[in-house]
Amino acid sequence: QVQLVESGGGLVQPGGSLRLSCAASGNIFSIITMGWFRQAPGDERELVAAITSGGSTNYADSVKGRFTISRDVAKNTVYLQMNSLKPEDTAVYYCNVDQRATMGGRLSYWGQGTQVTVSS
Asked: I want to staple 118 with a disulfide (CB 3.0 to 4.6 A). Which of 27, 35, 38, 85 is the partner?
């Protein structure tokens, strides 16, 4: 089985920074995408940032220029560096890993979620 363990969330003041980490372990054999989603109370879950196995990145418009996603392929770990944080960034952040299924399609795995609160 696959486990995703997140860390790095917490409380930060507006303008501050946090770095989230997500380490995948278990039966990892062919990752397609690693990424971060977030969900605020009353809102639907949204993609924050994603990075493909080839290194291509994608960001939500709301975080472009402030957040940076990166990964360590050998360690199956993805990071989200969050700078210039705003109160509207407050949410539970979920790590996501998609990998190829042996019989086609893809398998998705999710971390437990880590709370990020931006407040003065």
From this structure: 85
